[in-house]
Design goal:
The chain is an alpha+beta fold. It has one domain: Nuclear Transport Factor 2, Chain: A, CATH 3.10.450.40. The chain has helices at residues 28-41, 67-84; strands spanning 8-10, 25-27, 88-99, 104-113, 116-127. It has a 3-stranded antiparallel β-sheet, with helices on one face. Strands 1-2 form a two-stranded antiparallel sheet. A hairpin with a 2-residue loop joins strand 4 (104-113) and strand 5.
Length: 130
């Protein structure tokens, strides 16, 4: 018998399963990786009825990049994951400037999931959309 998936989330791309014509779900590690990325990229007051969910990292992208700004960003990212994604435990957050002129950051988040021995890495770019 196949091992059932422990975690399932809806894939926001809404890809259709060719066999049963239903939405293809994200499972296990992929579901948690997507959730972590969406939490970090969410600003406060973006989710209806849940204004407290968000990291507000886009607010910092027009700030001058100082060591204090990077520490504040790392703390915001870590707090939003710890508060709103109970399946993930943050091991580290690494931020680096990819382009000073475009106000963008490369973000790498290292976290662990219960019952999965290897740490998981999520990498993406944070850019201010004008």
């Amino acid at each position: 018998m196949a091992n059932p998936s422990r975690y399932k989330d809806i894939d926001i791309s809404f890809r259709k399963n060719p066999i049963n014509k239903d939405i293809t779900p994200l499972t296990d590690v992929d579901a948690i990786k997507r959730s972590v990325k969406i939490l970090v990229m969410t600003n406060f007051f973006e989710r209806p009825f849940h204004p407290e969910i968000g990291s507000n990292v886009y607010f910092h992208l027009f700030e001058n990049f100082t060591p204090f700004t990077l520490v504040s960003l790392k703390r915001s990212i870590q707090e939003v994951i710890e508060n709103f994604e109970p399946r993930a435990r943050v091991l580290g957050v690494d931020l680096s400037q990819s382009s000073i002129d475009n106000n963008s950051l490369d973000c790498k988040i290292l976290f662990s999931i219960q019952n999965i021995p290897d740490p998981i890495v999520v990498s993406f770019s944070l850019e201010k959309v004008r």
